[in-house]
Amino acid sequence: MRMYTVSDIRRFFIDELKDEAFTIDKTGMKTIELIGASFLADEPSIFGTPNQDYIDDEIAWYYSQSTNINDIYQLPNHPKDKAPPEAWQYTANKHGEINSNYGLLIFGHKYFQQYELALDELLTNPDSRRATMIYTRPSIWSEYNENDKNDFICTNSVTYYIRDNLLHAVVQMRSNDVVFGYKNDYAWQDHIVNKLVDDFNGCRDLHDREEISAGSITWQVQNLHVYERHFHLVN
Question: The pTM is what?
């Protein structure tokens, strides 16, 4: 079976825009959406160019495990009054609190240190199908809008597989914005794949395992979409 690639996804949105195949969201904005998308994440961007400076800041913030978006820009060279990105402001409550610090969700004690559990699973059983990190949770139904938040975690889970000494990831998402969301989420998932490879190889002698390398990332999204404000990038 042929696996779709980023190029195929890009072509889909270009054609849908040309055909004016829009849905209208709750704000009245035109949106192009692909329901049930599954493709090989073989490029770091679908439309637009990744902002590596911001990606580095966001990853550092994830590692801090802070759930306040005002902590995103913490490096000394940042202006002290620099505002967090608008997308984060939209999800946060008036104090800047959100749910979706991905570092907290996979590294934090509160959520069972899933990264360590998945790494141990891969070291113990490289053929495993349960090396999964679960990002969302049933309680998100009551937590996504508490204190006026609007943050229903977008990533559902990520599962890792070692096959032929390659570490592959399957990312499963509830919702993903093609322009900003995919670029930043891809950067995080690519970072975690490479971290797992490094940590696995650092421990492999203790488990008598062969060295592994980074493999593919398969991107599965229940709703992949482009907002009207980004149609110019599709053009």
Answer: 0.97
